[in-house]
Amino acid sequence: MKRDYYEVLGVAHDVDAVELKRAYRELAMRWHPDKNPGNKQAEERFKEVSEAYAVLSEPEKRARYDRLGHAGGGGATAGFETAVGSFTDLFESLFGDLFGKKKSGKAAGRDLRYTLEVDFAEAALGCTKSITVPAKVDCPDCRGTGARGGEAGLAPCAACGGRGEIKVQQGFFSLGKSCPTCGGAGKVITEKCDGCGGTGTVEKERQYTVQIPPGTDDGNIRRVAGQGEPGRRGGAPGDLHVVVRVKPHPLWKRDGNVVVCEVPIGFAQAALGATLEVPTLDGKVEMRVPAGTQSGTVFRLRGKGLGSAGGRGDAHVRVAVETPVGLSQKQRELLAAFAAAAGDDTMPRRRGFLAAVKELFAGPG
Predict the structure, then answer these.
(1) Dist CA 311 CA 213 (whole Å)
(2) Is it true that 5-99 and 112-246 share their CATH fold?
(3) What count of other Cβ atoms lies within 10 Å of the Cβ of residue 181?
(4) Based on the number of CB atoms within 10 Å of its own CB, is 54 exposed (0-12), middle (13-18) or buried (19 or more)?
(5) Using CA of residue 329, residue 335, residue 337, residue 339, what is the dihedral sign?
(6) CATH code that applies to domain 252-322
(7) Per residue in 247-297, pLDDT tens?
(8) Bridge-partner residues for 316, per DSSP?
(9) Dihedrals phi, psi of 301, to nearest 5 degrees
């Protein structure tokens, strides 16, 4: 009697694909014949977990198995030995990286990284920048092959017969492995190119235009697809990753999606009201501060903040009432006279504070 496939893999009947695969990989590695040479029980267990996973990993077969069990076959084969090919494909797809899965002779190009410094306003409003990047490009003499005369300077690899792979026996599996001599290309260089010394690439400076969208933050990365180093033997080129560094602004700071500027004002301006000249990312604007403005009050300048795909955001101006320092004798006398005349009537927050203190420390009754 065959055991229940879910029991074989040690998973629940509602297991998802990710957990199912994890359970199979763990068991397959434990019972693999190469790890248990001469152990027939381990070989049988390996066959059992592989057959269970082959059924449960395919939705249609799993649904049929859930309805009919082993009686319906569940899409399984009549026996492990009759389906060595399908199980080999399954095992190689899961463990090829561990047991030498065949690699294509193509080699993808390396990604390039470039740090671009922009002004605060350029990042906030968006801009276009031209950059020059030193990078490797295909050698024009050998057209990237590394061989003198290009393709004519390549010969079939003797180690793999030009196939680009060799077969490696893993227990009763035969897996394809990238040929170590030619790197999976199937061809080797007979004579190195004089222009690149056999590397297939030469160094050259290239210019790019990079779009910095409005609202770009410090550390954002702009990807320029396909503009990294070229691939080898027809491999895809890498990408260019432009890391944006935003210079600090002397007056404006970013807080999430808004820009904030703190503007110091005098005591008299806050008390009497004033019209201030405030810097923005677009230039200076006038802003009215009403009489009685308290320190920390924030005023909104509509449409003067960060740019975005939907337009401009707002800028926030936070006023900070500055306490005078270095007063002359005359100034001290005037302020003392003002304080005596004003009392607490002109300061409602102070009045409320003093009342709360009095109530807090008042005795019972």
Answers:
(1) 12
(2) no
(3) 14
(4) buried
(5) negative
(6) 2.60.260.20
(7) 999 999 998 888 999 999 998 899 999 999 999 988 899 999 999 999 999
(8) 260, 300
(9) -105, 105
Q: For the beta carbon of residue 120, count every other beta carbon within 10 angstroms.
A: 19
Q: Where are the alpha helices (DSSP H) in the chain?
A: 5-9, 17-31, 40-56, 59-68, 84-99, 120-125, 267-272, 329-342, 348-361
Which pTM does this prediction carry?
0.54
Residue 54 forms beta bridges with which residues? none
Cβ 34 vs Cβ 42: under 8 Å: no
What is the dotted CATH code of the domain comprising 112-246?
A: 2.60.260.20
- First and final C-alpha spacing in the chain: 90
Per-residue pLDDT tens over the stretch 199-235: 888 888 888 889 999 999 999 999 888 888 777 666 7
Q: Give the tokens for residue 180.
A: 């170590």
Quick one: how many helices (H) and strands (E) in the chain? Answer: 9, 17
Task: Determine the Cα–Cα distance for residues 133 and 110; give it in Å rounded to an integer.
Answer: 14
Q: Which CATH number fits domain 5-99: 2.40.50.140, 3.40.980.20, 1.10.287.110, 3.30.420.40?
A: 1.10.287.110
